[in-house]
Task: inverse folding
């Protein structure tokens, strides 16, 4: 009798694993690297908080995902090994993984629904950047909705960002309904043609749908000319290098216990607030034009953007006199001035600085010099500085996540306000100002 005995072997507990770095995060879950202590085998473990799932009425999605993945057996779909408790209509890059052989593995079936040939799904699910227009206008999705998602993915793989971008989900939805998106310069022509044939408002006009002849015309597109579709899962994929430097397994931050993991998730939800005086105070009344210094003082606000107690950004085109006044106000009113060695702060704001399993909230300070300081905002302690050099390079992965590449390390940062691109743009702007000036002086 092997059945009951085998089923007991599959019952796992959190104590059976050591938990490593976070691999991905979604609206309702976090995926971490987990190593089974008995065998040393590594798994991607998806962790969902019961209270949050119940509050959002998503228990049926969790059950459906488990049932669908249990019934699937395909080389390009992630395998479900086991589930345990303690405490696809969402096709997007985050749900397409690579296995050890560098073949894709599709995961996250929490929003999936099994359809027959003519069925449509009537529940509203998905991620804003990749949701299909028919789901927004008709409140239903079909098989062709995944082709829309494929078009968004191909665009993002080429351009680095999704095609429909805006400050909030509502504005993204409006762009999707109106098919408002642009191709950046040097976008590959074959990829552009394919994306245009996939991002069609009418689902029946998308390349690959049944009305357009099915998947064969999609496979035959010139973009896929180098792909041999037969026995694809047996072929050797092209070599790829890891996006982030691999961490050594003996790194003290690489694996932790379950209590560490839970406490870290809890800490990431806490927003520490302190009452500070405003960093800059606008003048309440007009200043006479007779005094140039006063006129300059009254116009300081034009250089400041996104002002609040902990975040702001400065334009870099200011005069020596304006810089002097900015430094005076920073010295007298900015609580972060004590950490920047009298350098003018050009941009600052809270970020989550991630290393291995852990992410710590830090106040990031970009200053003249240039410098990139990061401070513990709770204990008011300078924790370090990202070393600046001509080789420093910022890179936005998405709206929240950005990297700062240095010769010896890549810093993994997350902006909780979703302004990763603003950080990268400002860092790049400072870089260009410094090194273009240096280059011109050497001519």
Result:
């Amino acid at each position: 009798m092997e059945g009951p005995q085998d089923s007991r072997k599959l019952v796992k507990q959190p104590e059976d694993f050591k938990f490593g770095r976070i691999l991905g995060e979604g609206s309702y879950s976090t995926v971490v690297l987990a190593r089974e202590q008995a065998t040393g085998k590594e798994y991607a473990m998806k962790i969902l908080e019961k209270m949050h799932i119940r509050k959002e009425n998503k228990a049926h999605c969790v059950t459906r995902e488990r049932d669908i993945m249990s019934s699937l057996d395909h080389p390009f779909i992630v395998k479900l090994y086991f589930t345990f408790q303690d405490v696809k209509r969402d096709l997007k890059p985050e749900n397409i993984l690579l296995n050890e052989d560098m073949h894709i593995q599709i995961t996250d079936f929490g929003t999936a629904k099994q359809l027959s040939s003519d069925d449509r799904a009537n529940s509203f699910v998905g991620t804003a950047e990749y949701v299909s227009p028919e789901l927004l206008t008709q409140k239903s999705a079909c098989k062709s909705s995944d082709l829309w998602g494929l078009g968004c993915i191909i665009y993002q793989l080429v351009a680095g960002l999704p095609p429909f971008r805006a400050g909030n989900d509502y504005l993204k939805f409006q762009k999707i309904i109106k098919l408002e998106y642009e191709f950046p310069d040097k976008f590959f022509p074959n990829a552009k043609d394919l994306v245009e044939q996939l991002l069609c408002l009418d689902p029946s006009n998308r390349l690959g749908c049944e009305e357009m002849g099915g998947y064969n015309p999609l496979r035959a597109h010139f973009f896929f000319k180098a792909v041999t579709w037969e026995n694809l899962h047996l072929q050797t994929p092209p070599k790829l290098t890891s996006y982030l430097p691999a961490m050594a397994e003996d790194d003290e931050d690489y694996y932790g216990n379950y209590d560490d993991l839970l406490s870290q998730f809890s800490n990431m939800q806490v927003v520490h607030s302190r009452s500070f005086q405003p960093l800059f105070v606008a003048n309440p009344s007009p200043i006479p034009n007779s005094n140039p210094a006063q006129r300059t003082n009254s116009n300081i606000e034009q250089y400041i953007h996104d002002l609040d107690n902990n975040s702001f950004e400065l334009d870099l085109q200011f005069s020596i006199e304006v810089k002097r006044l900015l430094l005076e106000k920073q010295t007298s009113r900015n609580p972060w001035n004590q950490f920047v060695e009298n350098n003018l702060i050009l941009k600052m704001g809270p970020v989550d600085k991630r290393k291995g399993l852990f992410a710590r909230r830090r106040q990031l300070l970009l200053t003249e010099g240039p410098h990139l300081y990061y401070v513990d905002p709770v204990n008011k302690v300078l924790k370090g500085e990202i070393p600046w050099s001509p080789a420093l390079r910022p890179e936005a992965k998405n709206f929240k996540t950005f990297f700062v590449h240095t010769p010896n390390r890549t810093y993994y940062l997350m902006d909780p306000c979703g302004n990763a691109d603003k950080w990268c743009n400002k860092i790049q702007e400072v870089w260009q100002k410094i090194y273009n000036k240096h280059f011109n002086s050497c001519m």
Remarks:
- Residues 420-441 form the longest helix (22 residues).
- The mean pLDDT is 75.
